[in-house]
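Notes from the 1:1 (GR / supervisor)

We went over the backlog. Supervisor wanted to see one worked example end to end before approving the batch request, so GR pasted a single chain during the call. The sequence is below; no edits were made to it. Supervisor asked that the structure be written out right there so they could see what the output format looks like.
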Amino acid sequence: MQADGSFKLSTYGTEDGAPAGEYLVTVVWPGGVLPDGREEPEDKLLGRYSTAARPAAKVTVREGTNDLDPIRLK
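Structure output shown during the call:
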């Protein structure tokens, strides 16, 4: 992912996209160790969007180039 939030999806090879279809988008924000040594949670979103039961979004991928709308986390 880029600093502006854009990304290129890979399925079988580098930047080859995804097969056409409907997808549930899951999001995990990995934690780490802060400069003061404290550890953040494994997922800074606390699992809110990490499963298909609670996806961040549903998207449709069509054949060819796709530009998805921004996914806004609530």
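Supervisor's comment: The radius of gyration is 15 Å.
Batch request approved.
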